[in-house]
Amino acid sequence: MGSFVLILGLLVAVSNGIHVNTTGCGTSKVCMFRPRGCDPNLDCTIGVTLSVIGPNQMKVQMVAATIYPPVQQQYVAIAFSHDRAMGNDSVSECVISNMGEFVGYEPEVYVSYNKGKSNDRVFLNDDEHAELFTGLAGEVVDTRLVCEFTQQIMPQIDNKNGLIWNLNSPFYIMAATGSAQPDEVNAHELNRDSHSFPITSDEMINPVTFGNNFEHPTGFAPKINTNRIEKRVMRPTEAPKSSASLIPLIPFVLSFFFF
């Protein structure tokens, strides 16, 4: 997490060390950044890296320029899709709260699902969340939001009626950022000429192919009791009547390249 020091009456952000590692891009890691040639630790307006770091463990690192004027919550999200348009996609979203304050940044990671052109979070209890996601860290420093976490490739939890996906399959990879509310994300940037417009891979990618040295499970083998009393705050799985909808991710190949 970032910390802050008081210098001449100003609060200045100091990074505690979330570093987006670009080593292995194109060989052992999937990398997508905008603009072309940017440094994700310095000036990328949006970007994502994926790497397999152990059996069934995929590390996700995401960056995005902070929204101006500041918002209370901002997300940066990665989507796995069967095509290059929004709709019927599995999404992992990192949300950092108190963006409009200058203290107390708190990251949270959610799994959600694009139902057509709207996005709904999928409820996970504490045990399911801890099984699916580990190693969460996030910070806001130097006008950049940075988030990282490790996610199971083949989830060892209930698939929530098909809303939790096995990622051992080819997918188009998408990344987007925008403001968020306590229960949902808001629309991303709509201007296709903007550096914050969502990015999409130009071909399908199977994350497991970047980690062939590991033994991966063959499928869902429950490790926890999913029938226990659920403790985590409920998130709606049906779109609220007045919810904001995400605008379609228009097929647009932008800055997908390997270092």
UniProtKB/TrEMBL annotation:
Transmembrane segments: none annotated. Residues 1-17 form the signal peptide. Keywords: Signal. It comes from the Eukaryota. Residues 70-178 form the DOMON domain. GO terms for biological process: regulation of glutamate receptor signaling pathway. PANTHER family: DOMON DOMAIN-CONTAINING PROTEIN FRRS1L (PTHR46902). This is DOMON domain-containing protein. The gene is Cni-Y57G11A.4.
